[in-house]
Amino acid sequence: MRALIATVSLALLSALAHAEPACEAKAAEKKLAGAAKTSFIKKCEKDAGGAACEAKAVDKNGKALAGAAKASFMKKCAKETGAAK
User: Fold this and answer.
1) At what angle do helices 34-56 and 2-17 cross, to 10 degrees?
2) H or E, element range at 58
3) For the chain (length 85 residues), average pLDDT per consecutive 10?
4) What span is annotated as the signal peptide, if there is one (predicted)?
5) How many domains does the chain have?
6) Domain containing 36: what range?
């Protein structure tokens, strides 16, 4: 079970590492520069981190978390992934 969790965590972290170039590409596509580009990239990376946490919000039985359990998990996950910058 620990190996599965470690594997999933590594896969998600590698996906997050690839989020920045995608955000950079989107900013270039929109022809953003300066503060607008910085703001856009920061929001894009935050959204990507939130999506990764959303995908991991599953309990031990494979069911999606809900309510207070999901809120608590999402808050912890955002801190761990740096999504709450």
Assistant:
1) 160
2) none
3) 65 52 89 92 83 80 85 85 56
4) 1-19
5) 1
6) 2-81
Q: Indicate yes or no: pTM above 0.85.
A: no
DSSP letter at 1 equals -
Would you call 64 helix, strand, or coil by DSSP? strand
**85, HSE (Cβ side, Cα atoms, 13 Å):** 15
Residue with tokens 């309510």: 67
Q: Phi/psi at 59 (nearest 5 deg)?
A: -80, -175
CA neighbor of 48 nearest in space, from 7, 6, 84: 84
Distance CA 7, CA 4 (A): 5
What's the token pair of residue 16?
């997050």
Pick from 56, 52, 83: nearest CA to 69: 56
- Give the amino acid at 79: K
Give me the sign of the Cα torsion angle 70, 11, 28, 39.
positive
